[in-house]
Amino acid sequence: MSPVTTLPPVPGQAALDPLFGRNLLLTRDWTTPELEVLMAVAGRFAGLDYAGRSTALFRDELGWALFFDQSTRTKSAWAGACARLGLAPVIVDGGSTQVSHGETAVETGAMLGMNSHALGVRHDMIVGEGNTFMRDVAQGISAYLAAVGDPRRVPVVNLQCDIDHPTQTLADLMWMRERHPGGLQGRKIAISWAYSPSYAKPLSVAQGCSMLFTRSGAEVVLAHPEGYHLMPDTMEYAHAAAKAAGGSFRVTHSMDDAFAGADIVYPKSWGPYELMLERVAASKAGDKAKLAGIEKAALAGNARHQDWICDERRMGLTKDGGALYMHPLPADIGAEVSHGVMRKHAVDVARQAQYKMYVIMALLAVAKTPDLARRLADLSK
């Protein structure tokens, strides 16, 4: 991060009150003003952390996280956020829980609600299930706490589902604003599919970026080959958000078109939506032959688009040849992005990732602390 010479202002308590007790399951569940308050708190935590100040708002509490998929940056961000706030992070492989033996998400929520003080969940690989699982877990926690008269707030944080990756996209937005302090209104942001030799990558990053970045008034362009479209409802939301913010949103099937004159580029692979749905159905049916056929077809489809790579030529199409390159990592170097482009922007993507921890800190703090404005002011003394 850039050196913080002055701490960002603390939002007023009246602005923080509506966020108390809230879960973050999709960014579209929150209004734009609410997200602005959240990012302001994240910025405050970043400033305090950079200044070496303690940010321990809690003590003797647990911050559970269930991961049904592999992770490096998000696990690290969750652990770092919990530790800095004074919660002990507990990160569990979702496959090691009784969910694998038929325990429902509501039951899981009730069990975790007994002992946890915050819960993060990553459940991103099964289209149609991830976000529903998170909402059912949140319901189980709330029902348990209400039944026993427990006043605790146990927020549920989406650490990536099948629809959205809120902590990632909010971190992305904060990084873009650092690099473009004048704002994103009128800036061109290219979100693009990129080739990968694997096919079963979640749709959630591209969808989350499309739904969130369009709220900034930017000119957002989504590029992908034919057959790689995203969930229809996320695209409808992106179009409506762009219109409301005075920006624009369009889809193109040309990576060059998206990159031309762009201020920011975000090339990232994802799986074909229809094939991902077929994959879920075949997996539930235990049809191994069908699964093998789907994988073969998907890999063959990807291979037809190996020229969809963020390389030096394409970066040269961007505004003054100097667009901000972004990626949630890990990138398929040599496929999604050339070795040269990644070497040039390695520090940038690391700094992009750093904001995720502060977003998670902000989410837990606003949801759990009824007098957060005063507590933040006290931390700054």
What is the fold's blueprint, element by element?
Layout: H1 13-16, H2 32-50, E1 61-67, H3 73-85, E2 87-93, H4 105-115, E3 118-123, H5 130-148, E4 156-161, H6 166-179, E5 188-192, H7 204-213, E6 219-223, H8 232-245, E7 248-252, H9 255-259, E8 264-267, H10 273-285, H11 288-303, H12 312-315, E9 324-325, H13 339-368, H14 372-379
Parallel strand pairs: 1-2, 1-3, 3-4, 5-6, 5-8, 6-7, 8-9
Helix pairs in contact: 2-13, 3-13, 4-5, 6-7, 6-13, 7-8, 10-11
Shape: globular
Q: What does the main sheet amount to?
A: 5 strands, parallel
Radius of gyration computed on alpha carbons: 21 Å
- Total E-strand runs: 9
**CATH superfamily descriptor of the largest domain:** Aspartate/ornithine carbamoyltransferase
What amount of the residues lies in strands?
A: 5-15%
How many distinct helices? 14
Element-by-element helix/strand order: HHEHEHEHEHEHEHEHEHHHEHH
Strand order of the largest sheet: 7-6-5-8-9
CATH architecture verdict of the largest domain:
3-Layer(aba) Sandwich
Instruction: Using the coordinates above, name the CATH class of the largest domain.
Output: Alpha Beta
Mean pLDDT: 92
In CATH terms, what is the fold-level topology of the largest domain? Answer: Rossmann fold
> How helix-rich are the residues, as a percent range?
40-55%
Structural class: alpha/beta
Low-confidence segments, ≥5 residues, pLDDT <50?
1-5
